[in-house]
Amino acid sequence: MFSFRRFDRSTTLFVGLLTVAFLVATFDVRSHGVGLGETMREGAQVLFAPLQRAATAATRPVVGFIDGLSDIAGLRDENARLQDRVDELESQIQEQQSLQNRLEELEAINDLEPPGQLSAIPAQIFSLGTSEFNHIRWINRGTADGIALNQTVIDEDGLVGSIDFVTESSARVRLITDVRFGVGVRNLETNELGTISGRGDADLQLRMFNAEKPVARGQLLVTDGTRFPAGIAVGTIVASAETAAGFLLETTVSPAIRVSEIEFVKVIVGWSPLDAVGEGDEPQPAPNAPVIGQ
Amino acid sequence: MRGRDVVFALTVAIFALVLQSTVFAEGRIELFGASPDLTILAVIATARHLEPEPALLVGFTSGLFADLLGGAPLGLWAIALTVVAYVTVRLRARSDHGLVAIGVGVLALTAIGEALFALTGTLFGQRLLMSAGVLRLIFLPAVWNVALAGAVLPPISKVLARDRTRSWRP
Predict the structure, then answer these.
(1) What is the total count of domains within chain B?
(2) For chain B, percent of residues with pLDDT exceeding 90
């Protein structure tokens, strides 16, 4: 049994450590993660990143095998769904070709410049979060590669998240599913604006204020160009809904990305929210902008 | 207390953290939408055998490392894992170390750690309790930790308990 003296010392140390931890948390929140917290995180990356990269490389076959096992049950349904999707896409391609011809004609008539391609840096994910509560990813690109805070991260399906911490050789991506993440969106069909916030493992939540039209299942939502470049796919409406209580529309949205399958991403560089704002103008939705990820 | 025991405990915690952040994490290997929390399990496994002060320091340090690699403010996991280490130290003297007692202990301590992290995170503005299925995120890792405890605890106990009288036992 503990001696009273030993018990007393450990309790004193316990209270002291808790006090230190609370102070550290308060300081880190107040300083928004810069200063000492930033230095400590950079140091931790130097120590842990090589270990995490080695662990990821070593365990990838095992993780892939287990993922494959869990996927087998769903493969049949997935096959049927994909066949339907192929049929749908084939008809869309024909329609797209027609639209492309019209666009080329219009550009020639109006002497329009085609929209410039956004510069993007490819990156690989080497580590995930340490908790089920935080949806983050660490990528193997940092300030040395041109990565900076708040840059947009995408993959072939759409918006992945944004950079919320960066070191010289790595960066942390906060996923759109994280509860701290929010993004302004535009409904591609109704052209109305709203905001989407993450809810962890569940579907995203869409809120639209003063929406005049209802939303329907399957409608695509894209970034509105305020915080991220316009036209990046964010997700599709899961449940139809209309404005309730006179002004607020709320529903759920299935993210465009497949969170558990992200391995490579692209970080958009050279774009700033200021690019979307002209002199004295509010950010404008771009109804005809190409959609990234769909 | 031998210094090498503390070094061993920290090595176990770091190994658990690396596995946690690469293999057993949200978006990787999950069962029913959650994965085990290896860091908490490592702290429980080592705190059972370390003397109280080193056990608390190992819990605090492991938590700080988890904070540095995670997406929440520094200190939140340090709070949770220090509490887990302290409760482990307090409870071990009253336990006869039967399998049921250990299983219940791992279950409760993991749930306490997860709940504390979510609670303090929310107090610090992280909205963690707003996560969908928050009870699942608290209790499922606890269940997985119980399932893994049979494989993780014995080898760690073997290393830390050898050549030493268990000074904490009555």
Answers:
(1) 1
(2) 47
Nearest residue, CB atoms, A55 vs list B23, B29, B79 = B23
CATH superfamily of A120-275+286-294: Rod shape-determining protein MreC, domain 1 (2.40.10.340)
Q: How far is B170 from chain A (nearest CA, A)?
A: 4
Q: Are B74 and B26 in contact (CB under 8 A)?
A: no
Q: How many CB atoms lie within 10 A of CB B80?
A: 30
Q: Which of A176-180, A233-237, A246-250, B67-71 has the lowest mean pLDDT?
A: A246-250
Q: Do B65 and A18 touch (CB under 8 A)?
A: no
Instruction: Indicate the pLDDT class of residue A280, thresholds 50, 70 and 90.
Output: very low
Judge whether B74 lies within some domain: yes
Return the residue matching tokens 């190992």. Answer: B58
Can you tell me the distance from the alpha carbon of A41 to that of B139, in angstroms, rounded to the nearest whole number?
29
Give the residue on B whose Cα is nearest the Cα of A65: B29
Q: How much is the ipTM here?
A: 0.87
Its domain, for residue B14, covers 3-161
User: Is the C-alpha dihedral spanning B103, B105, B109, B112 positive or negative?
Assistant: positive
Residue B76 one-letter amino acid: L
User: Which residues on B lie below 8 Å from A43 (Cβ)?
Assistant: 68
pLDDT digits (tens, 9 = 90+) for A119-161: 888 998 998 888 888 889 999 999 999 999 989 999 888 899 9
Verdict on whether the full-model pTM lies above 0.80: no
Those of residues 245-264 in A touching chain B at CB distance below 8 A are 259-260, 262
- Write out chain B residues lying below 8 Å of A262, CB-based: 27
Alpha-carbon distance of B149 to B161, in angstroms, equals: 17
Polymer length in residues for chain A: 294
Helices (H), chain A: 4-30, 36-110
Closest partner residue to A199 (CB to CB) among B56, B120, B132 is: B132
Whether B149 maps to a domain, the answer reads yes
pLDDT band at A285 (very low <50, low <70, confident <90, very high): very low
* A133:B93 CB<8 A: no
Residue A278: is its pLDDT beyond 60? no
Helices A36-110 & A4-30 angle (0-180, nearest 10): 30
- Looking at CA atoms only, how far is residue A103 from chain B in angstroms? 40
Q: What is the pLDDT of residue B2?
A: 72
B169 belongs to a structural domain = no
CB pair distance less than 8 Å for B75 and A56: no
CATH number of the domain where residue B15 is located = 1.10.1760.20
Return mean pLDDT, chain A: 80
* pLDDT > 70 in chain B, percent: 91
- Domain ranges within chain A, ordered by starting residue: 4-30, 120-275+286-294
